[in-house]
Every structure is written in structure tokens, then in C-alpha cells.
Amino acid sequence: MVIDTLKCVGCSDCVVACQTENDVPHGYCRDWITESVSGSYPNVELELKSERCNHCDNAPCVRCCPTGASHIVEGGVVLVTANECIGCGACIESCPYDARYQHPDGYVDKCTFCHHRLVKGQLPACVSVCPTKCMYFGDLDNPNSEVSQLLKNRKYKTLAPEAGTNPHVFYLI
Amino acid sequence: MQEELFTSGRHIPNIDPSLQIWHWPIALYLFLGGLAAGILFFAALFYILGKEKEYPSAVKIATTIPPIALSLGLLALVYDLTHPLYTWQLYTTFRIESPMSWGAWVLLIVTPLSFLWTFSFYRESFSNIESKLNLFKRLKFLNTFEKFVITNRKYIAYALIPLSIILGVYTGILLSAFNARPLWNNAILGPLFLTSGLSTGAATIILLSKSIKERHLFGKIDLGLIIIELALIIHMIMGYYAGSQVQLEAMELLVGGEFTLMFFGFVVLLGLLVPALLELIELTGYKVPVIVPAIMVIIGGLIFRFIMIEAGQLTRYLY
Q1: What per-residue confidence (pLDDT) applies to B245?
Q2: Is the reported ipTM for this assembly greater than 0.85?
Q3: Which chain A residues contact residue B6 at CB under 8 A?
Q4: Chain A contacts of B178, Cβ < 8 Å?
Q5: Which H helix or E strand runs over B203?
Q6: B81 touches chain A (CB under 8 A)
Q7: What is the domain range of residue A107?
Q8: Structural domains in chain B?
Q9: Is B2's CB within 8 Å of A37's CB?
Q10: Does residue A32 sit at the B interface (CB-CB below 8 Å)?
């Protein structure tokens, strides 16, 4: 997933779309908006971005999971099997992005990149509703895909790269 | 200067789910697990060395603690799970990369072994209780079972030495495997928790011992372990000092931050330095009630686990 921080206006449509699409219980969220201000007056910069699970290549949550409930499916999406999850919280403690939460039903829940929509060939709910079209989703292994081209032609960053997780959500800057 | 805030979804008072998800049951379990590992290690070691007559507290009396400690610890662990009905899923797989999986399997083996160990000494050490309960007269099969356990006790002891060390190290490695919590994410935590567990185990043996010779020996062992533990704590703090920004921030909690008094006052001073001094004074011949340093070591070990659990969850990469 590629997110253009220059186009994001922080409207939270992605958050609401996710909560509706995935039946996220009230008071919880799988994605969220951060607003960061850097510099000091008069040289101030504001960056808005939508954050979620980074579906890391080297996912610490998958490594720490004692039952194998957290796993990586084909294509690189990190998923949790609810009825294999014991709710120990190891994955929550190991995620540098704090992307996971304990569902009121007990198991641990997080962004799935709307895997149920992907298998039907649809885009994740957040991407499909974004009014400024600042979010892009596609195959990074395909050099001609839109996301690969964006990463080739634009400057980008990832969150907490020093954690060594090799995240798969890229922010264009 | 950078300021970051959530405009939607997170950290909204009374709405955002707390990310601090591990509470007192985990700290209590880590303490009890370490304590049980310490006692079992010494029991097995002195049994193999053939010193069970000389050091009865270590081999026979104090070993009644591990089965109780492990059972309470396991109850605390299950209580902390949010999906406890699926606990059996731990035993459908063995995940070599996950310390929690290691721990689950080791506990599955160590807990019954600790019960067997206590059972095999029950009639010998607690004959007064047995004479009231008359369990062995009422249940005949216990006699054959006891004979079987006693003949195989040597093998249990050989198994317990590596298993108790794995159990002791695992309580620390469990935390250090979480790369998102910089306070925990250092390699010294495994040996540190093992040493602390062995030290609290030795202190418990001192508490329950009636012979002066045994108390002196375990006083010496405990003193050595305390010195190693202090060295490991210095290593840990030096590791944070030399670490990245997130580790420096984590260290500030312990050095100069909100956990300073708890850590240096209750763990380092009252839990390690003062008992070490008292044990040293006692070894040189002065009379010190051994119960004092032993209890200080045990309480210090417990507070140490609580501090690490609480402080560790305050440290993170983002936000």
C-alpha cells in the first residue's frame, strides 16, 4: 500500500469505511489518522497520514505468536485466525506500530488489507473511499503496477524502519 | 521539534483501547516461575551430588513450593488471556521462534515433574501429616506409584536441571523477544531473570532451612548470585546507554524517570545491596537473623518483575 501524504487531508473517511466494512466494535479501530507538526514558527510543516498494520515482511507479531494464529498469507498479508488465538497479547507487545488490539470477543484483531475484498478483486475499503485518492494498493512484485511506479518516481518513507520489520505501507513525501 | 497527535481513532480519552495489556498476573507469574525454577534447580543439583541428607531443605522441604508456585502462576497466566477457552491451541503446535511456545511446552513438562518430586519426598519429610491423613493406607496404589517415582528420581533430577534453567531463562527471553518494547528488547534480560530466579530460590531455601550449615552454604550461593545480578543490571543499563534513541528513552524511565525510586531504592538497594551486606556480615560470624536478607531478596525479586512489566509497556517506537 502506498499513501501520498501530500494529498491526504485527514478527513478520516478511511477510518469510518474500515469500521463499517469490517464491523469493528465501537471504540476500536484498525486504521487511524495522525497529524504531525514539525519545525518551529515560521518554518512549520504539517503532515497528515493514515496509519494501519504495515503487513511487515519480517513481522515480529508472527514470530512471537505461540500458536501460529498470526500468519502471513500468499501475497504478504498478515492475518490472525480468531479461533487459534488465545489472546495472550504477545503480538500486541511485539508490534512497533501498535496496530493490534484485543477484540471484545477475546481474540486479537487488526487491519487485514480487507483480504475478503482482495480475493474478489476489489480494493481495500479505505482505499476505495478515499476522496482525495491519496491511497494506492497493488502488487509490489510487479514492476509495472501503479504502486511500484510511484515508489520508483517519488520520494517515500516507511514508519520506524529502525525496528527492522521491513514494512509494506509506504508514505510518499 | 516535532509534535505528533492523533486526529482520529486513537488515544481519545475513554475510547481508545489501552495498549497496556499486561498487568499484575504476568508479573506475578514471572516471579513465581523464576522462584520455582531456582528451587528445582538447586533441588535437582544437590540430589545428583548425593547431598540430600546434608541439605534437606533444598532437596526435600523447599521443593513443596514449586508445584504450588507453578500452579498459581499458570492460573494467573490463563486468567490474563482474553481468549482462555482456546488455551489448548498452544499445544497443537510448537513454534521454535516464539519464546511463549517454548515456555508453554516447558511448563507442561516441569509442572508434573515438580509434583512428582514433592510426592516422592512426601512420606519421608511430612510423616506427621501422613500419620493423620493415612493416605498411603487408604489408597494402596500410591505405594507402588511412590516406589516407581523414587526409583526413577535420579532421571527426574537429570531432566530438571536443564528444564529449570530453560524455565528461568524463558521468563526473561519472553520479554526480550518483543522488539516493539525497547526496555525489554535486550539480550541480557534472559540471564538476568534466571539469576534473579535462582537467587529468590536460594533465599526461599534459607527461609525454610533448619540447619546452620545449609543456611551458610545457601547464604554464600545467594551472595554470589546477587553479585552476578548486580553486574548484569549494570550491563543492562550500559546497553541502554549505548543504544538507539528509543533505548535511551526507555532507560530514562529507570534512571531519572518515574521508576527510579522503585528500581534503585527497592530492587537494587533493598533487594540486592542490603541483603548482600547482611549475608556478608553473617558469614563473618556476626549474628543476623537470616530471615531478614532472605525476605528482602524475595520481595526485591517480586518488585523487579512488576517494574519491568509496567515500565516496559510504556516504551515504544512511535507516538
Answers
A1: 86
A2: no
A3: 32-35
A4: 60, 64, 90, 93-94
A5: helix B189-208
A6: yes
A7: 2-172
A8: 24-312 (1.20.1630.10)
A9: yes
A10: yes
